[in-house]
Amino acid sequence: MGRFIDSWRSHLLVTLSGNSDGRPKWVEQIATGDDPGFFGPGSAAWAVHGGMATMVAGIRALLMQTLHPGAMAGVHDWSRYHEDPLGRLSGTIQWLVTVTFADTVVAERESGRVAHFHDRVAGSYIDARGEERSYAAGDPELLSWVHVVFTDAFLQSHLLWDDAIPGGADGYVREWAIAGELIGVQDAPHSADELAAQLEAFRSAGTLKSDARVADAVRFIRYPPLSRGMLPFYNIMFAGAVASIPREYRDMLGLKRSRLPVIWGTRLVLGVVRALLGPTSTSEDAALDRIARIERAQQLGHPSEP
C-alpha cells in the first residue's frame, strides 16, 4: 500500500507540476521580488487558488471553454492538446499560480508571456448562426469568455468543495478581475452578480454552440491520457465537475449528471489529495518566503535582496 501511495503521489505531482518533487522551475521566480504581489496572504485569490478544488475547477473551465466556437477554433487550430496535454495544462497552471502568488513585476511579465503567445493565434470559424467569422486570441469577446468561464469555474468549485473565501464570492471575482485585465480583458466582472450576468449574456445571445469539435474536446477531457492508477480518481472528479455545471450547459456539452453521489465522492478524493500533498503548495511557500524576506528587510531599514 505504501508503494502504491508513493507512486500515485509521484504521478500526481508530475501531472500538476511537471516533476516528481512538485516544484516546477518557474516556482523559483515566485520567491524573488520586492512586494507582496497583487493579492497577498489572506486574499480571496490565495484562498481559492491555493485550495484543492482547483483540480476540479480546471476540468469545469476546460469543458465550458469549448462552447464558444471562436475559443474552440483557437484550441483546434493552434493547441497541441492531443499530442502534449500535460504541456498545455502546465502552461495554464504556470500563469494562474504566478499571477496569484508572485510579486507584481513577475506577474506582469508572466501575463505578457501569455499575451505574446496570443498574438499569433488567429484564423476563422463558423459561428452559431452558420456564418464565417475571423478570430484572434486577443479579441475582446474571446478574452472575456475565457475569463468569465475560468472565474466561474474556480469560484463555484471552491464554494462546493472548499473553505470559506475571504471577502466572499464578490471578493474573489473582484480580485481576479485584475488578472483578466493584465492579459487584456475589457469590462471584467467585479462581483458574483456581474459574473453570472456576463455568463448568461453569452448564452442568451446565441453565441455558444455544440458541434463535432466540441464533442471531440469533451471526449478528450473525459478520457485523458493519465496513468492507470490516477484514472479512477480523475473519473470521480470529472463526474463532480459535470455535476457542478448548470443543466443548460451540460445539455450543450452532451453530458449528463451521474446518479451517484459524485459531489460527496469528489470531496473525498480532494481530501485524499490534500493528505498526500500537504496543506500548502510549493508556490504558496515560496511566496510566503518572499514576503517574510521583505518584512525582515523593512524591520532592518534597508531594501530586501531578491
From TrEMBL:
Transmembrane parts of this sequence: none
GO MF term list: oxidoreductase activity
ER-bound oxygenase mpaB/mpaB'/Rubber oxygenase catalytic domain residues: 46-274
Pfam families: MPAB_Lcp_cat
Listed name of the protein: DUF2236 domain-containing protein
